[in-house]
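Service request form, structural biology core

Requester: graduate student, group of Dr. S.
Request type: structure prediction, single chain
Budget code: on file
Notes: please return the result as structure tokens.

Sequence provided:
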Amino acid sequence: MSLYQVLQPLLFRLDGETSHDAALRALDLAHKLHLTRPATPLTGRPVRVMGIDFPNPVGLAAGLDKNGAHIDALASFGFGFLEIGTVTPRPQPGNPRPRLFRLPAARAVINRMGFNNAGVDALVANVGRSRHRGVLGINIGKNFDTPIEQAADDYVACLRKVYPLASYVAANVSSPNTKNLRELQQGDALDRLLGALMNEREALAAIHGRRVPIAVKLAPDLEEAAIAAAAEAFVRHRVDGIIATNTTIARDGVAGLRHAEETGGLSGAPVKEKANQVLARLHAHLGGRIPLIGVGGILSAADAREKLAAGASLVQVYSGLVYRGPALVEELVAALR
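Core staff response, request fulfilled:
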């Protein structure tokens, strides 16, 4: 029995957010005491995506380490890459607590965190203190009180700060927990945001002498027409990668369960089918022109293989770790060799 299996019943007695914070503190302590494995990627199938060499195709999804405060300890799980954030230009507390709920019977999580984070300067400082030298993605967003018409300014401000430190940058336009944010996934709003990000990236590439890839994270709730239009925009603006998907506002698979009616984004096993459908549709529209990162509902090796079959080149996990712990990473890396 693993240490996480021993601790999980104790953690599940706490509310979701308290449990999350306690688990990270315990992981940090174990890492400092050298009780974790070395903070290097597990040996897996190397893959080159977005011009980056990933030692294995299994990554940590954004949201678990919003401020980049636990990078070294999380790297001990053996991920091929880590994605930290979502970070905003200014610190913000997020939505009122409680805002994170487990639904164990469905192996699911509902959150309405609201981009709670210490701000981009704090994240940059944390990354600077980290010893991690592996692939690091940094996920960026807008402050809750920035008008949607000015959202691009926030994304550009974050991009400038994180650019020297990131292996790639992911723009989160799909969280359901920041008012109107999902409007950025479509139409003129998406075009304006992508244009601003890509123009700024070219300027930063000239300054820093390296071209950092930019990916965009989409929701699983998009209709076919919106998926097709977004795919066209991504090709037109030469986006480097697409992360499919974020959490869902649907409640398929959890009806009647405790916390099922809580407001927020649903993740875990119930989102898998919706996420896979969006992933497959994007793959069909893009025809391999832009690589895809599959996330949503991965709790086993079979789940990860489904992502690859739907068109993903890489996979990411978060909610699966809540229910499976670090053993999930080892299982996935071994299965995807």
